[in-house]
Design goal:
CATH topology of the largest domain: Uridine Diphospho-n-acetylenolpyruvylglucosamine Reductase, domain 3
Helix content: 10-25%
Distance between the termini: 29 Å
Radius of gyration: 20 Å
Number of helices: 7
Bound molecules: flavin-adenine dinucleotide
Structural class: alpha+beta
Number of domains: 3
CATH architecture of the largest domain: 2-Layer Sandwich
């Protein structure tokens, strides 16, 4: 394992923000990881795991040992007629795994196609799209504790998954590096096609009884045609989470702002689309120098070239302030911010 000093992270985050890692290690296994932990501890540097950098805002010089996992591997741990449990290395890219599972006849992940990032980062925010969340498939998460190098195994329940949330953002924040995720998938087609955008797309293609392949293709089509590609328009996907309110408060708001869509969320809560709130504050297509709000997607902040973390966060703060002023709703940003 090589440790590089003063390494640029511009090409390692999808917002293409300029930032430097005090040190960076690309690790190939648990031995490398333990060595990296010891190296960082000896220099009193925190360890910062970085996957594809598609859910982070980086700024300035990160006084940390940034650790990138280059581990690969997909292993069948158990299988029966109904289901299969796969152990997948944290360094694997997410979307190729989804496609491979479909080809093997391991079903369930189709709605999560084309989400950028690595397998190891997927449990951090319990990735979700088109009516499906990762939590439905996680059997175990394997990790190493950064302070001791000891292994830790969490069940799906231990992960305390919720909407874009998990124990890794709270009690275990910054405490570990995920090394493997065990996923329980179905051997029988397990189609979830009722999410409105997806159902509409399938319907428009004349597909009445979709197969997992149909769902996968439709999700890939929708995402490719609608979502800005970070390679051309650097972004971190949805910049804000959809806020949740008690049902009564949400209904009262919808009464005052006709057209505000509400989605039931768990017991007694409704989710409001952050994109709608932002759009109705007039931000869609707004541009301030190098950074702006995508003209088609109010939820997406774009670095048009030369923008930095500070500019992105300043714009995000102005957006959140205006939503708070107009709707009295607090927006929370989705990506994790590093550096200052
Ligand atoms: C265009 C676009 C579309 C997106 N669409 C969606 C979507 O539909 N649904 C969705 O849920 N998300 C979406 N995202 C967000 C993002 O793809 C996911 O959050 C993804 O899981 C991040 O993976 P990553 O490898 O890039 O993580 P990074 O951005 O590198 O890291 C994210 C966080 O996870 C931590 N982390 C990374 N790897 C590990 C590890 N091995 N162990 C411990 N901690 C780790 C990092 O320290 C950081 O805090 C989108 C992003 C983009 C750019």
């Amino acid at each position: 394992m090589r440790i590089l000093c003063a390494e640029s992270l511009r090409d390692r985050n999808t917002l293409a923000l300029p930032a430097t890692a005090e040190a960076l290690a690309v690790v190939h296994g648990e031995e490398d990881l333990r060595e990296a932990f010891a190296w960082a501890a000896a220099r009193q540097l925190p360890v910062l795991p970085l996957g594809s950098g598609s859910n982070v805002v980086l700024s300035g010089n990160l006084k940390a040992l940034v650790v990138c996992l280059a581990t690969t591997g997909r292993e069948i741990l158990r299988q029966g007629d109904e289901s299969i449990v796969l152990g997948v290395a944290a360094g694997e890219a997410w979307h190729p795994l989804v496609e491979w599972c479909l080809e093997q006849g391991y079903f369930g992940l189709e709605n999560l196609a084309l989400i950028p990032g690595t397998v190891g980062a997927a449990p951090i925010q319990n990735i979700g799209a088109y009516g499906v969340e990762l939590q439905s498939f996680v059997e175990r998460v394997h990790a190493l504790r950064i302070d001791t190098g000891e292994p830790l195994v969490l069940s799906g329940q231990d992960c305390e998954f919720a909407y874009r949330d998990s124990v890794f953002k709270h009690r275990l924040r910054d405490a570990l590096i995920i090394t493997r995720v065990d996923l329980r998938l179905s051997r029988q087609p397990d189609v979830r096609a009722d999410y409105p955008t997806l159902a509409r797309a399938l319907d428009q293609s004349g597909i009445g009884a979709p197969t997992p392949r149909d769902v996968f293709d439709a999700v890939v089509d929708i995402r490719s045609s609608r979502l800005p590609d970070p390679a051309r328009e650097p972004n971190a996907g949805s910049f804000f989470k959809n806020p949740r309110l008690p049902i009564a408060a949400a209904q009262e708001l919808a009464g005052r702002f006709p057209g505000l869509p509400l989605y039931p969320h768990g017991s007694g809560e409704a989710k409001l689309p952050a994109g709608w709130l932002i759009e109705h504050c007039g931000w869609k297509g707004y541009r301030d120098g190098a950074v702006g709000v995508h003209p088609q997607h109010a939820l997406v902040i774009v670095n048009y070239g030369g923008g930095d973390g500070k500019a992105v966060l300043a714009l995000a703060e102005r957006i959140a302030d205006s939503v708070s002023e107009r709707f009295a709703v607090a927006l929370e940003i989705e990506p994790r911010v590093y550096g200052g």
